[in-house]
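Students often ask what a holo structure prediction actually looks like on paper. The answer is less mysterious than it sounds. You provide the chain, you provide the ligand, and the output is a string of discrete structure tokens encoding the 3D arrangement of the protein together with adenosine-5'-diphosphate.
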Amino acid sequence: MALIVKKFGGSSVATTEKILNVAKRILGEKKPEDKIVVVVSAMGDSTDNLITLAEGIDNQPYRAQYLREMDMLLTTGEQISIALLAMAFQKLGHPAISLTGSMIGMRTNSIHTKGRILGINPKRVHEELEKGNIVVVAGFQGADKFGDPVTLGRGGSDTSAVALAGALKADECEIFTDVDGVYSADPRIVKNARRMKEITYVEMLEMARLGAGVMNPRSVEMGQYFNIPIHVRSTFTNTAGTIIREDYTLEDKDFEIRGVAHDQKVAKVAVLGVDNTPGIAHTIFAALADANIDVDMIVQSIRNIEKNITDMVFTVALDDLPEAKKVVDAVAEKINAIGVLVEEDVAKVSIVGAGMLGSPGVAARMFGALAKANVNIDIISTSEISVSCLIKASQLTEAVNSIHDEFFAD
Ligand code: ADP
Ligand code: ASP
Ligand code: MG
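The corresponding structure tokens follow.
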């Protein structure tokens, strides 16, 4: 007997026909003794459509005051798909029950729209499995100590699935999506991207953190924490997919670069003409931290040596920009900055690979590939296993392809 958690993303359940196909596929693969938990996302683009609805009330629905209501709204998307999938199983003759995040005991903190899982008590899931049900769970959502719904950030159904697999001590966690695995770059942008048989948690986490949307970064952390191999595979075909695990077992480990990631949902903020004195960076970034805004690349550049003032430039997620601008405008006034500039026409392109440790030429090759594509670099940042460049959004496709060609030519 195996306990298997299977997660199906929005495109996999975009229509009722697709939902019926998902149910058919699961029943076709299920051995009689298997216990199956299915985690699902909202149908197709319905989460985006719910956000558009909220924009009809206020064109900046991610303001702090609305976040609880945004969660109330966004959790309805998954509630629709779980009900329909449970009905599909029943229609095909197998008992099934749908459960929301709060019903599966998914406890979160109260940071609305960016919730973190504090713990899962899946008693109800076990009870329903014992009764012979296929348990269909709403991804992306939990409940806080008040019982209020909290979502886990965009793409958070992956996290729900892996965390639930960990809490249930599942034998397998499969992530079904519209691609047949993890590729060396987004196959929608790089036509000759290569599918990987395996990738380590560490490299996948870095790829995901830097924008490779095939997996949510938090879900990869969960996989590593519970040491559960995650199998990323296609909803629509039967190909083998990619296993995310602690270490490589099959492939040659001698690659410097594992993949190229990109992120278009970023924005640049520049606080101009701030005093070059101790405490200024703290004042700016503490205010952003208090508003739960993650800051990514940071550059402090010298503007005027004689006057000893600098510009503080950094990037945030595009969704956070309105709130970040509000926070930074208030701080800028307090610290007498000359002004605040924001730029949305930016994107981040990154190379990722544990093999670049101790390979000094890798960053230079990336910059060379960007130069070849005539792409100017605005900001550079590095970690032990990645190099990222902020560039103009309009040049993203050329940039990603040129870098991919440089490292994956043959
Ligand atoms: P789901 O709705 O199933 O969660 P997502 O849209 O979140 O699906 O993730 C799948 C998409 O991730 C793919 O369609 C692909 O365009 C994108 N993607 C980005 N980077 C990669 C990569 N390195 N490998 C595979 N897919 C990637
Ligand atoms: N429906 C949510 C989103 O679109 C969660 C998910 O799909 O993983 O972000
Ligand atoms: Mg996803």
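Residues 211 and 263 are 5 Å apart (CA to CA).
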